[in-house]
Design brief:
The protein is an all-alpha fold and 340 residues long. It folds into 2 domains: 243 residues, no CATH class; 69 residues, no CATH class. The chain is 67% helix and 0% strand. The chain has 14 helices and no strands. Helix 2 packs antiparallel against helix 3. It is globular.
Length: 340
């Protein structure tokens, strides 16, 4: 077959039903996007580490802009998983490469679970981003042959479902991973199937649309300059970078803490953290009074140090819940309009 005929055959195959991948070669802008997402993740993890070592207020990364930032990072990674699934297997699943990659991800996810269980057993990672990627790598194959419009509907449904439906039947280790339990488990990285698998299906749909429109061809022709080489390298070796970057950041901060340990004003830090968390749901006046009440009760019992523990006991958490209920009722009664 001549070169022209081969090109026509490839073109026809790539556009058939708008769902086949155009190429198996790497597309540098996609590697670049993955590298940028890794850089953003490193920034977020560094902020989390600053909390852990006492250089930032506890809970800083769990609320407000940091919380949105974290969700955007996870969603970007998962959308890229969907795009990569389409590029790798849109013309037919390449099982040898698929199983090899899946095995690496599963092994890495298991290692993360074991390591975090040893280091922080009270909030270890049992279904984080790597666990979600492993799940999505298998489940996503089912959607490669769906038309793009159907995948868009599926993605929207997966993302919306946990906002309208949860059930106590999934409150436990057997159901937490779904994201549909009423009780949210304690974990330093929790990326459940609902809603995050929706980002993977959305990524598949985006790749399908881009393939049909010829966008993937145009992206394949783009080669960023030398400035992008570190990010391209990270994007091509994303699993290794993911596994290595956090231990490196933690080790660096630990060494720094030996020279310049964090100076912690515990009462002020407690109030600042409490008010930041409270203000996600209540107004400033309520939160100021409520957090002052909480500080007084915890300090009166001499348990302020325990409030900053990375692994507080279940008995202490139960005590805090009782204090919170009492302070909430007290503040609602004392602050004008507080019970509205």
């Amino acid at each position: 077959m001549g070169a022209a005929a081969r090109m026509l055959a490839l073109s026809a195959r790539s556009t058939h039903m708008g769902s086949m991948a155009i190429s198996r070669s790497r597309i540098e802008p996609i590697d670049l996007a993955r590298g940028i997402a890794l850089l953003a993740m490193a920034v977020y993890h560094f902020a989390w580490d600053l909390e852990f070592f006492g250089y930032a207020d506890p809970g800083m990364t769990a609320v407000g802009g940091w919380k949105i930032f974290a969700r955007c990072i996870a969603s970007t990674f998962l959308a890229l998983v969907g795009i990569s699934l389409f590029l790798s297997h849109g013309n037919g699943i390449r099982w040898t490469g698929f199983w090899r990659r899946l095995g690496m991800i599963v092994a890495a996810a298991a290692a993360i679970t074991v390591a975090t269980y040893i280091a922080t057993p009270d909030f270890f990672i049992f279904f984080g981003i790597l666990h979600q990627i492993a799940f999505a790598s298998v489940a996503g194959l089912l959607f490669l042959r769906f038309p793009a419009w159907a995948n868009i509907l599926v993605a929207a449904a997966v993302i919306a479902l946990p906002n309208v439906y949860t059930t106590p039947l999934l409150d436990g280790w057997w159901g937490w991973w779904t994201g549909l339990s009423e009780i949210r488990p304690r974990s330093s990285d929790f990326v459940p199937v609902f809603p995050y698998f929706g980002a993977v299906v959305a990524g598949i749909a985006m790749a399908q649309i881009a393939s049909r429109a010829g966008t993937l061809d145009r992206l394949a022709a783009i080669h960023p300059g030398r400035w992008s080489r570190p990010l391209l390298f990270a994007g091509r070796h994303s699993l290794a970078v993911y596994l290595i970057h956090q231990p490196v950041l933690i080790a660096g901060l630990w060494l720094y803490a030996q020279v310049a340990p964090a100076q912690i004003d515990q009462p002020a830090r407690f109030v600042s953290t409490c008010e930041r968390t409270c203000q996600a749901d209540r107004d400033d006046a309520f939160c100021t009074a409520y957090c002052g009440c909480m500080l007084g009760r915890i300090a009166d019992e001499g348990r302020l140090e325990e409030a900053f523990s990375t692994a507080p006991s279940e008995a202490f958490r139960a005590t805090v819940r009782e204090m919170a209920a009492a302070c909430s009722a007290e503040t609602d009664a004392a602050v004008p309009g507080g019970d509205q």
